[in-house]
């Protein structure tokens, strides 16, 4: 019901963020505390959200339930499929702030930006998202 009224009675004690559901507040507070209560039983990784653990566990099982509709590739999480599908669209949403070149993935942009800096790392401030 609070979704429709816009009421957000659950306020974070560490910042100004407020939520309509207490469970959303609890999940959000982990960004401040760094708490990662969801531990993988097959390796040392831990996650702040259960859904991230479930996606991670697919790397151990090899399960790839997200199939690309344009080719034979399949992925273990939906975000990887979405990132991949950009390659079929020709969309290049990551633009270099130092020249006119644009890229389909952030990692391609970062690799490109090394050519401008001569360094082996790039700061996130040098990346812009085209929408």
From TrEMBL:
<dbReference type="GO" id="GO:0000981">
    <property type="term" value="F:DNA-binding transcription factor activity, RNA polymerase II-specific"/>
</dbReference>
<dbReference type="GO" id="GO:0008270">
    <property type="term" value="F:zinc ion binding"/>
</dbReference>
<dbReference type="GO" id="GO:0005634">
    <property type="term" value="C:nucleus"/>
</dbReference>
<feature type="domain" description="C2H2-type">
    <location>
        <begin position="38"/>
        <end position="65"/>
    </location>
</feature>
<keyword id="KW-0862">Zinc</keyword>
<dbReference type="Pfam" id="PF13894">
    <property type="entry name" value="zf-C2H2_4"/>
</dbReference>
<feature type="domain" description="C2H2-type">
    <location>
        <begin position="66"/>
        <end position="93"/>
    </location>
</feature>
<dbReference type="Pfam" id="PF00096">
    <property type="entry name" value="zf-C2H2"/>
</dbReference>
<keyword id="KW-0863">Zinc-finger</keyword>
<dbReference type="InterPro" id="IPR036236">
    <property type="entry name" value="Znf_C2H2_sf"/>
</dbReference>
<dbReference type="InterPro" id="IPR013087">
    <property type="entry name" value="Znf_C2H2_type"/>
</dbReference>
<keyword id="KW-0539">Nucleus</keyword>
<keyword id="KW-0479">Metal-binding</keyword>
<dbReference type="InterPro" id="IPR050329">
    <property type="entry name" value="GLI_C2H2-zinc-finger"/>
</dbReference>
<feature type="domain" description="C2H2-type">
    <location>
        <begin position="10"/>
        <end position="37"/>
    </location>
</feature>
<dbReference type="GO" id="GO:0000978">
    <property type="term" value="F:RNA polymerase II cis-regulatory region sequence-specific DNA binding"/>
</dbReference>
<feature type="domain" description="C2H2-type">
    <location>
        <begin position="94"/>
        <end position="121"/>
    </location>
</feature>
<dbReference type="GO" id="GO:0045944">
    <property type="term" value="P:positive regulation of transcription by RNA polymerase II"/>
</dbReference>
<protein>
    <recommendedName>
        <fullName>C2H2-type domain-containing protein</fullName>
    </recommendedName>
</protein>
<keyword id="KW-0677">Repeat</keyword>
